[in-house]
Amino acid sequence: MKGKKKITDEQKKLDVDLWIIALATLVAYAVYAIIGSILLTFCKDSGISVWSRLLAASLMQFGIAGWGITMVLFWRRKSFSGFGLRRENSLKAIGGTLLCFAPYIIYIVVSGQFEGYEPLSIMITPDLHKAGIFTTIIGTLIIAVFWGFFEGFNYAVISKIIDRRYPVNSKLFSWGTLVCTLMGILFHPMSFDLLGIIELITTFIALYGMLIICKETKNAWGCVFAFLFIWNAI
To answer: CA 9 to CA 116: how far, in whole Å?
Structure first.
């Protein structure tokens, strides 16, 4: 009878990292489940300072996509470049990501859901534009950080940690890629009519392809680009 395979110290550290990210994200979602409707009403109220609303929304967004990986990276003293934020292969990563998102973009346009290209646009954006050029610029930069950079980089970091913990010798598959893709789909509104199934398939291709490109190029800028200029823009 074979004994259990011994877990290395590195694997134990990776397990701890994954638990930190999972628990941090679950806490953020639990908070959102409790105060989500209140927060939504608060953020939509144009009578309240746009900065207060942007800060509240940014903190919630960061809690869901960014807080966990930031704690792990600082605790382990890991550099962002070690998880793909480097110049090498950045254009290749962005180009490959665009190709992977092409079916999703085509679906959005053909299905009549395209209402205009609005990168870095959230519910507060119209009020930012009304508040003056300074508020527009700074507010847009904040949106780029929390809804673009951290959301995209979150996928890249979690995927890489899972891949390190459960390595697979394949160019077209990894556990990190699959888990993060399914995670993205599960947190995405779904329906199971014909259009909903097509959207599900194109979303899977976009996220899975994005993460495979990230894995093969060792560059996460494609993930960040996708959430800056595609996912939150159409």
So the answer is: 50
Task: Give residue 1's pLDDT.
Answer: 44
For the entire predicted model, the pTM comes to 0.91
Alpha helices by DSSP H, 45-193: 50-64, 67-75, 90-110, 125-130, 133-143, 150-165, 175-186
**CA–CA separation, 20 vs 173, rounded Å?**
25
**CA distance linking residue 182 with residue 190, whole number of Å:** 12
119: its two tokens: 């990168």
User: Along the chain (234 residues), what's the average pLDDT of each consecutive run of 10 residues?
Assistant: 70 96 94 93 93 95 94 92 94 97 96 88 90 92 95 96 95 96 85 89 96 97 96 84
Where does residue 169 rank: exposed (0-12), middle (13-18), buried (19+ CB within 10 A)? exposed
Count other Cβ atoms within 10 Å, centred on residue 138. Answer: 14
Environment class of 221 (CB within 10 Å of its CB; exposed 0-12, middle 13-18, buried 19+): buried
